[in-house]
């Protein structure tokens, strides 16, 4: 058996080791300081391609304005690692795993309930905090997850506020439709809304009845049949749950089939999106959207509006920007308070969030035990001359509603 | 099959009881379905022509259509050129594209196993989709022509102007293609290549040249269909694979290799989707199109107008 070289402890070696230890101990706090000063790595998952690409790209604008606004608020900087869910649940799941593998310390996303559910499972499994920007399906925060937080109302909350705001508008204009036809896309969000609306409607004693519910594929390329069927019901108004592309398709078909309902009451995204306004021009005016929105009178909303005008001139501030920004605000605020990028410390800090000077409508951002911000409120928005006017609730409004919808064939 | 009829009857009774759908709505939806189906048919015609002659299944068919759509969008955005005006020039560009693809890529694969040809064209499709993503991004794009929102009213019938223009153009292009194959020497030669490969070689036809010509014609067809569809639908790079699938459904229903079959299949699928959306539920439109396909495969595997294998 070969004999290995024996090492002996000498005074010189001991002194060198001791000095190294002291040096390391002395530097350690500065290292810790650097760790806190380093940017938090945030994985941003959005549907940047596929049928939700338009909205995913719009959400990205909220990310684009975040760095400057967070700096102005005195919050630590974030390092963004972007990922594309391709509007697909399975891709969302694999991209979340990939981001965590690449060192993401917190995840934000993903606009869609199905994709957010998939990401939530991954985040919980890996123990990485996930702040949902936009997703309304209630089950996401009903699973007992410890690392999943949602600063966005659930479908029942959206409906509750939508009906309250609708009644406020009906009272303000002194008119209301007696019947509606309900057009809804059949993805996770749309199906959740379809299930919830019939149950919620009677509780709010709404003035209208639903004559027919027409469900359609959100990736549909032609909605002429859907509009023909809706028109055939003879309903006074349209109640819709849609996305961007189908909102554009529905409007085109309404014009082509020469039908202007008394009003379009949208219970989801699509109708207030910038691309909707730009694509349809004068035909985009009039629809009322009831959605989680921002209070235009709040200080942060004005700061976001100004930042957006600088980075993306001509784009109206909307839900996608505000809620994506607020998800990042929550991350930066928690990182500052946690003083660490440790996932558990971050999750604990997010749970203790109390941001009152936010942008969205309501008293602010706080999370309940399930990780849900249950204080958030929706708003009523009307498209007018290419701008978005908040018409309800009164406390957060910056204009009065216009009723009814101007006939499409009389728009100059 | 026996159980299906009462089920349909029950659904119809419920529908009638709940709310009567005016008869003009059926007419409007049926006409819309036929018009859309004609454009679908032209798109599938290209696939059928290519398979009928070259015996290559073009898995990049829908992707080639989106390529033509993006050419039309670029011309419209840059020079405000109406897609219908640009139909012939874009179809010509697609002809050249198809010709080059056949000469440079597919001809060397003609004698190789089928799966190699499939993979080659799947790869071409993926390259087109990703190339378009890089060049144009994932956003939905459309053209805003002056007649985009126009419709014609004839009594109770309201006809979408863009669908009508697209359908008329589809009929004209299809008729031109039929005439080319029926009455020109080149068309006759191509049909000879399709009927008897060895015989065509024996009589001195440059078969590979005619294959390239045929693939070019197929590409021109799908290019023309893409330009017309652009008036009806918005485009994203991801649209291609969905239309490849649709083209397959149509040509298999109509009869793979049969030109009249492709048009008939397009109209049948367009009409089926439209009526299924009205009579049942719009979200199940595609299900009915696939149900037609399954029925055809069960009852007449060669397609409605396909030739029975000897």
Task: Provide the helix percentage of chain B.
Answer: over 70%
Radius of gyration of chain B, in Å, reads 20 Å
User: Outline of chain A, from the CA principal axes?
Assistant: globular
- Secondary-structure element string of chain A: HEHHEHEHEEHEHEHEHEHEHHHEE
Strand order of the largest sheet of chain B: 1-2
First-residue to last-residue Cα separation of chain B: 29 Å
Largest chain interface and its two residue counts? A-B, 41 and 42 residues
Low-confidence stretches of chain B: 1-18
| Head-to-tail CA distance between termini of chain A | 99 Å
Summarize the main sheet of chain B.
2 strands, antiparallel
Range of strand content of chain A: 15-25%
Q: Determine the mean pLDDT of chain A.
A: 89
Biggest sheet statistics of chain A:
7 strands, mixed
Summarize the helix and strand pattern of chain B as letters: HHHHHEEHHHHHHH
Q: What percentage of residues of chain A falls in helices of 4 or more residues? A: 40-55%
Number of strands of chain A: 12
For this structure, the quaternary state is heterodimer
Write out the strand line-up for the largest beta sheet of chain A, numbering strands in chain order.
7-6-8-9-10-11-12
Low-pLDDT residue intervals, each spanning 5 or more residues of chain A: 1-8, 22-35
Structure classification of chain A: alpha/beta
Number of helices of chain B: 12
């Amino acid at each position: 058996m070969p004999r290995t070289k024996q090492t002996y402890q000498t005074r010189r070696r001991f002194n060198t080791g001791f000095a190294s230890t002291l040096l390391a101990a002395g530097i350690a706090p500065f290292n810790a300081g650097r760790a806190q000063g380093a940017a938090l790595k945030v994985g941003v998952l959005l549907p940047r391609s596929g049928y939700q690409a338009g909205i995913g790209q719009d959400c990205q604008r909220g990310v684009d304005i975040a760095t400057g606004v967070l700096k102005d608020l005195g919050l630590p900087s974030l390092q963004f690692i972007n990922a594309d869910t391709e509007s697909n649940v399975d891709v969302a799941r694999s991209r979340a795993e990939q981001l965590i593998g690449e060192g993401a310390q917190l995840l934000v996303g993903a606009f869609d309930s199905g994709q957010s559910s998939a990401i939530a499972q991954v985040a919980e499994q890996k123990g990485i905090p996930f702040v949902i920007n936009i997703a309304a399906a209630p089950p996401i925060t009903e699973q007992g997850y410890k690392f999943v937080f949602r600063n966005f109302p659930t479908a029942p909350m959206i409906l509750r506020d939508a009906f309250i705001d609708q009644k406020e508008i009906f009272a303000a204009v002194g008119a209301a439709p007696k019947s509606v036809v309900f057009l809804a896309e059949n993805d996770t969000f749309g199906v959740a809304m379809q299930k919830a609306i019939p149950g919620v409607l009677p509780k709010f004693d709404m003035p209208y009845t639903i004559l027919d519910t027409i469900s359609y594929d959100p990736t549909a390329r032609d909605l002429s049949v859907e509009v023909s069927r809706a028109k055939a019901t003879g309903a006074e108004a349209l109640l819709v749950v849609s996305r961007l592309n189908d909102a554009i398709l529905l409007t085109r078909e309404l014009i082509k089939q020469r039908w202007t309902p008394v009003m379009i009451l949208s219970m989801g995204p699509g109708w207030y999106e910038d691309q909707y306004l730009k694509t349809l021009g004068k035909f985009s005016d009039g629809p009322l959207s009831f959605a989680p929105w921002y209070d235009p009178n709040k200080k942060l909303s004005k700061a976001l509006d100004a930042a957006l005008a600088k980075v993306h001139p001509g784009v109206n501030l909307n839900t996608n920007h505000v809620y994506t920004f607020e998800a990042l605000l929550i991350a930066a605020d928690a990182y500052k308070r946690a003083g660490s990028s440790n996932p558990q410390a971050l999750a604990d800090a997010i749970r203790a969030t109390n941001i009152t000077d936010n942008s969205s409508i309501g008293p602010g951002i706080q999370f309940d035990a399930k990780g849900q911000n249950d204080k958030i409120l929706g708003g009523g928005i009307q498209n007018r001359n290419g701008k978005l006017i908040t018409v309800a609730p009164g406390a957060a409004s910056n204009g009065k509603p216009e009723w009814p919808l101007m006939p499409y064939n009389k728009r100059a | 099959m026996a159980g299906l009829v009462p089920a349909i009857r029950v659904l119809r009774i419920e529908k009638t009881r709940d709310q009567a759908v005016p008869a003009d709505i059926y007419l409007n939806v049926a006409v819309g379905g036929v018009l859309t189906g004609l454009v679908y048919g032209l798109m599938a015609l290209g696939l059928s022509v290519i398979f009928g002659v070259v015996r290559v299944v073009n898995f990049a068919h829908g992707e080639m259509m989106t390529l033509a759509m993006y050419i039309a969008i670029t011309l419209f955005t840059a020079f405000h050129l109406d897609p219908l005006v640009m139909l012939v020039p874009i179809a010509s560009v697609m002809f050249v594209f198809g010709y080059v693809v056949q000469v440079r890529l597919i001809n060397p694969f003609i004698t190789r196993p089928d799966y190699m040809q499939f993979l080659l064209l799947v790869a071409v499709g993926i390259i087109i989709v990703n190339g378009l993503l890089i060049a144009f991004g994932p956003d939905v794009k459309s053209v805003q022509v002056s007649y985009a929102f126009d419709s014609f009213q004839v009594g109770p019938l309201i006809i979408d102007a863009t669908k009508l223009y697209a359908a008329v153009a589809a009929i004209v292009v299809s008729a031109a293609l039929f005439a080319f194959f029926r009455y020109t020497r080149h068309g006759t030669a191509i049909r000879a290549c399709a009927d008897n490969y060895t015989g065509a070689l024996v009589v001195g036809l440059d078969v590979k040249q005619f294959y390239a010509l045929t693939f070019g014609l197929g590409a021109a067809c799908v290019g023309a269909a893409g330009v017309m569809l652009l008036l009806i639908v918005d485009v994203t790079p991801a649209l291609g694979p969905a239309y490849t699938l649709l083209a397959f459904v149509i040509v298999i229903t109509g009869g793979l290799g049969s030109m009249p079959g492709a048009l008939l299949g397009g109209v049948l699928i367009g009409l089926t989707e439209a009526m299924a959306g009205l009579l049942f539920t719009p979200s199940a439109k595609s299900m009915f199109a696939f149900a037609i396909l399954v029925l055809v495969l069960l009852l007449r595997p060669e397609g409605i107008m396909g030739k029975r294998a000897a």
